[in-house]
Design goal:
This protein is an all-alpha fold. Helices cover 95% and strands 0% of the residues.
């Protein structure tokens, strides 16, 4: 059970890190796509 807890909380922290990186990288990309859509 302790190993399961460590794996679970570790995966949650990893998801938070991945989500923060994705939000930082994804915002400019979404802004670019919105600009392209507005131009087209």
């Amino acid at each position: 059970m302790i190993l399961v807890k460590i794996l679970f909380f570790g995966s949650v922290s990893n998801h938070k890190i991945l989500y923060s990186i994705f939000s930082i990288v994804g915002n400019p990309i979404s802004n670019l796509t919105n600009r392209i859509d507005s131009v087209v």
